[in-house]
Amino acid sequence: MRPRSIVIAGVGGQGLLTMGSLLGEALLRQGYKVSVGEVHGLSQRGGSVVVFVRYAEYQPSPVVAPGEGDLLVGLELIEAARRLPLLSRSGLAVVNDFLLPPPAAQRVPSREELVASIGKAVRSVFIEALPLAEKAGSPVAVNMVMLGALAACRSVDVSLESLKSVVSARFRGAVGAINLRALELGYEEALKKLGEEAQG
After folding, report:
1. Are 60 and 4 in contact (CB under 8 A)?
2. Structural domain boundaries of the chain?
3. How do residues 20-74 score in pLDDT, each as one tens digit?
4. Residues 122-135, buried b or exposed e (16+ Cβ, 10 A)?
5. How far apart are CA 83 and CA 50, in angstroms?
C-alpha cells in the first residue's frame, strides 16, 4: 500500500500533539509502520501548529507534501484553510466549526467566508466540536471529539476501538472517562455528517 497521510491543523493549546501521539500509537497497534512529524509556528498558545501522521506497511517519511494528504483534521477554521494545499484532490477535510482570529491580523475572514471557501475547495465536513466536548464533560476535550471524528472517516485505517484502547491506557479516572465519551460523540457526529453528505 502507498503511505496514507493525515494532517492535523490548529493552534497551540488545542492538544494537536496529543492527537498525533495517540493516533500514531493506535496505528502502530494495528500493525502499521508510523511516522509522526510536527511543525510549530509561534511557540506560544495560539500559534499555528500542524502535525503530520503517515503510515504504511514500511516506514514512511514524516512529512506530507502538497497534494499528498488523504485527510485533513482542522481544529480551527483559519488553520484548516491554510493547510488545504496539502490535501489530494480526493482528500477529505473534517473541520471544527470554530474561528480564532490571530491577534495581530489586519483583516480576518468571517466564519461564513471560511466555511464556504473550504467547502468549495475540497470535500469537507464541519463539526461543532465544543458543544460535544462540553457534553462529554470538559471543553478541553475538543481534540478528543475531533480524534473520534477522524476515526469515522473511511479515508484512514484507524478504528474507534484502537483509539479508545490507547486513550484508556494514557488517561485514567475522570479524565479518561471524559476523553472516551468525547471520542464516541465525535465519531457519532462525523458518521451522521458523512451520511448526510452521501445523501445530499
Report:
1. no
2. 4-199
3. 999 999 999 999 999 999 886 654 566 889 999 999 999 999 999 999 999 999 9
4. bebbbbebeebbee
5. 8
CB 64, CB 8: distance < 8 Å: no
Euclidean distance between CA atoms 12 and 4, whole angstroms: 25
Q: What is the largest CA-CA distance in the chain?
A: 47
* CATH code, residues 4-199: 3.40.920.10
Q: By the 8 A CB rule, do 136 and 160 touch?
A: no
Q: What's the distance, CA 158 to chain centroid?
A: 13
Residue bearing cell 493525515: 6
The dihedral built from the CA positions of residue 11, 15, 21 and 23, taken in this order, carries a sign that is: negative
Per the CB < 8 A criterion, the answer to whether 112 and 81 are in contact is: no
Predicted TM-score (pTM) above 0.70:
yes
The answer to whether 93 and 80 have CB atoms below 8 angstroms apart is yes
H helix or E strand, kind and range, residue 116: helix 111-121
Alpha carbon 187 to its chain's center:
12
Q: What's the CA gap between 143 and 78, in Å, rounded?
A: 16
